[in-house]
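Researcher: Here's the sequence for the chain we discussed earlier.
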Amino acid sequence: MLKMEDFLVIRDLHHQGLNISQIARETRFNRRTIRRRLEAEVPSMPQKRARKPGKLADYTEYIQRRITDYPLRATRIYREIQEMGYTGKYTIVKD
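Model: Thanks. This is the structure I predict for it:
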């Protein structure tokens, strides 16, 4: 991802009359990158990714209920949720 400064430098060099190959040599960016930045009206901003629910997400309510009812060890809870279909590892449950 190019920084805003790089985007502006590319635009400035193009306005000074340099062609894409000359800009690429000077900035050390690929010619395709230069071309895309010159075609873009605004610099591309990073998109936030949607968080995926973890493997334990379906079982958190059950685990919290079991812990509040009885002080159980993680190994016991791990075995119980495995029987319910949990496919993750023990360390996730322990944490």
